[in-house]
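REQUEST ID: PR-0412
SUBMITTED BY: lab tech R.K.
PRIORITY: routine
TASK: structure prediction, single protein chain
INPUT:
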Amino acid sequence: MNTQKTLYLAGATSDMALAIGREFAGQGWNLILGGRDPQALEPIRTDLEIRHNIQAKTVLCDVAQPEKTIAALEAIHPAPQGMVCAIGYLGDQKKAEHHWEEAAIILHTNFNGCVALLNAFANQLELNRNGFIIGISSVAGDRGRQSNYIYGAAKAGFTAYLSGLRSRLAKKNVHVMTVKPGFVYTRMTEAMKLPAIVTATPEQVAKDVFAAYQKGKDVIYTRWFWRWIMLIIRSIPEKLFKKLSL
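STATUS: complete
OUTPUT:
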């Protein structure tokens, strides 16, 4: 790849990741598209190269195969300057309550797998003393709600992980940003009835993420009003909260 800056998109098949990738590509960044099936990403890679006049490549990124995924990351030379970790799986809350296999997939995909990948990348950036990580968490991690508390628990753990990683790497000139989206129109949420007034498009999220990256923000909510929505939800007394159907 050429000498332009390069961004690694982990979970590149997701609508949100691709929107973020297009935003960076529009600013001249080369892209590495990480997905479970790199061949399936080829049409996207070609489109990005032609549309934005950048270079892009595809690599294996599968949290079910962490050793192979990390090996593929470490084989990239020169190493990318940044990573967006947009790996996620909403899963089925009701199924997860009764079947550990579903709960395990939710927890592993949204937490364990992301941590394995980011640990490896963080070590590279620490040695280089430069770069950034953008982790896509969720407002679901701000407070456990009965409708999605297993997914929310994984995202809460991921948010805490990113906070600790940010503190560790700040001394090494490496920035870590936590992104907490609210409702977003994606394939992951297409079966849900989302309130239009507070639901964003992936493109809106991408613009928020890129603007926050440029400003060196530590934590952002997207869209911005979710910060205040979640402040209200976190402020509800537990005695009342457990009676609500949230």
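NOTES: The chain has a mean pLDDT of 96.
REVIEWED BY: pending
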